[in-house]
Amino acid sequence: MGKGGEKGGESGEPEAQIRFYTWEEIQKHNLRTDKWLVIERKVYNVTQWAYRHPGGQRVISHSAGEDATDAFRAFHINPTLVQKFLKPLLIGELAPGEPSQDRGKNSQLVEDFRTLRKTAEDMNLFRANPLFFSLYLGHIIAMEVLAWLMVSYFGTGWITTLILACILTTSQAQAGWLQHDFGHLSVFKKSSWNHVVHKFVIGHLKGASANWWNHRHFQHHAKPNIFQKDPDVNMLHIFVLGDTQPVEYGKKKLKYLPYNHQHEYFFLSEYLPCTPPFSPNATWAISYYMRYFITYIPFYGVLGSLSLLTFVRFLESHWFVWVTQMNHIPMEIDCEKHRDWLSSQVAATCNIEQSFFNDWFTGHLNFQIEHHLFPTMPRHNFWKVKPLVKSLCAKYGVQYEEKPLGKAFVDIIG
User: Fold this and answer.
1) What are 132-168's pLDDT values in tens digits?
2) Integer Cα distance of 230 and 224 in angstroms
3) C-alpha–C-alpha distance, residues 136 and 121, integer Å
4) So where are the chain's domains?
5) Which parts of the chain span the membrane according to its record (predicted)?
């Protein structure tokens, strides 16, 4: 730990002495009770602040002891506003002789990626098209209305009910992609507006919790496919994923389930993690269930409406799991390797070929690489930044993987 001189404030009074730190010192502060991180060469002690962090304490804790500059830029749409929360946490800076990146990361690659992000900003690729999202919400509401009109006009026969279930499933899946947009703050310029509409879409249209989604999903984005940090690959012994976890289970003889058949019971377990959690205290979620049962109990009764909802959830959960996992499960799943932002995201994600159907069916998550690199970018702009990303990956030999939709589904089983 180095020393620094005093710095005069606006009042003429000397400010606290600037302290300089080495990476060796900073990396020691990555414990649950002691967390430092670096943003643009400034060192912050976030030990106490982590528990008040709006994105959850875990996501910020996953960057403890590291350079979090790119993660910070990726998740915050108004860094200037966030700076006022960071200022009281500032404890010093990197020593002048220390590199900006920790653990020997390629500084030129990091700088080139930040230049790419600045280029995307200059191209207005972080500006949303209101018409796109208005029409998207409109087609979801139209499907909900169509489902009610169908059962009102044609009754509750088997064929009508099956068509109705497919319409509601499609509506739910598309609402899932839409809530994802607002959850990532990629629609409105103000975070508060995104948060309000996010609660409406995920709560009133889907019956799930925005807080639950935020808690899990931002961890996934910060450290995709990293054991102990990404909840999406923490399967609680149901599955063993990646190349290293099966070996670990084999050596320790941890045999909770017949893992040699996990590709078979995968189909049966999809429903379990994808049923949105219900909380009696979640007003928005309550409004969804009230609306649903008020709409369908007159036609199907209580038991029939509950059965219909369960069937729709079952169908939607398969849609959700196959789309979200085809980009990640076939990729590298391993322990923390402390890579730079670009390398870590691309190693854990792959793209699916673009087409009108693929864009709609996946909610533009076929551009998973671009989405992970720029989570606050509106999805209708992913195709514009894609050539820049591919070019940068080619320059540094970072594998950029893209495949057809069918092959992606087959690779999940593989």
Assistant:
1) 999 999 999 999 999 999 999 999 999 999 999 999 9
2) 6
3) 24
4) 20-104, 130-225+280-326
5) 131-151, 157-178, 293-315
